[in-house]
Design a protein that fits this description.
30% helix, binds nickel (II) ion, 3 helices, alpha+beta
Length: 169
C-alpha cells in the first residue's frame, strides 16, 4: 500500500526513531509499503519516520533498481574526504540544496530477514545512506546547511508550498 509522505513541519519528522524489535510479518508488510511508496514517488530513498512510523529503518532504490533495506543501521566509519551534492527530499518537495557530507561511509545494519551485514559505500549510495540515516535521528538535509542557508531554504519552501496550494484551488 502506498502511504502518505509527511512534509516539513510535521512533528513526526523531528523525532528520534526507536530500534526495530522483531522481524515479523508486520515489519515485512511495512517494508513492502515503503518500497511501494518509494516507487510511486520521484525519490531514491525513504525512511520510516517519513510515513509516520517511528522505527529505525530505511529503504533505498537507486537507478540500478536494487531494493536495499537497512534496519537498525549504524554508520561505523566515514571518510575524511567530503563531497558536495545537490540533495532533495520527498518530505520537502520542490526544494534542492547543495549539502556537504563525507564521500564514503561504512554501515552496519540488518536486512529484511534480520541478517546482519556490513557495507562500504561511496558515491550516490553513500550520500543516500547518510541522508536517510539522518531521518532516523529527526534530521532533514536542510539541517546540514549553514544556518543562514537553512533559513533561506525554509523560506523558499514555504513560498513554493503556498504557490502549489493556490494552484490546487
Ligand atoms: Ni529525505
Amino acid at each position: 500500500m502506498v502511504r502518505e509522505i509527511l512534509t516539513l513541519g510535521s512533528e513526526e519528522l523531528a523525532r528520534t526513531a526507536v530500534p526495530v524489535g522483531s522481524f515479523d510479518s508486520a515489519l515485512a508488510e511495512l517494508i513492502k509499503d515503503m518500497f511501494e511508496t518509494l516507487d510511486a514517488n520521484p525519490g531514491i530513498g525513504l525512511a520510516a519516520p517519513q510515513i509516520g512510523v517511528n522505527l529505525r529503518l530505511f529503504v533505498i532504490k537507486l537507478d540500478d533498481g536494487i531494493p536495499r533495506v537497512f534496519i537498525n543501521p549504524e554508520i561505523t566509519a566515514t571518510s575524511a574526504e567530503r563531497s558536495m551534492y545537490e540533495e532533495g527530499c520527498l518530505s520537502i518537495p520542490g526544494l534542492w540544496a547543495d549539502v556537504s557530507r563525507p564521500k564514503a561511509v561504512s554501515v552496519f545494519a540488518y536486512d529484511a530477514k534480520g541478517r546482519p551485514f556490513n557495507l562500504d559505500a561511496e558515491g550516490l549510495l553513500a550520500r543516500c545512506i547518510q541522508h536517510e540515516y539522518d531521518h532516523l535521528d529527526g534530521k532533514l538535509f536542510i539541517d546540514r546547511l549553514p544556518p543562514h542557508k537553512r533559513e533561506g531554504a525554509v523560506r523558499q519552501y514555504e513560498k513554493l508550498s503556498r504557490q502549489s496550494r493556490r494552484k490546487k484551488h
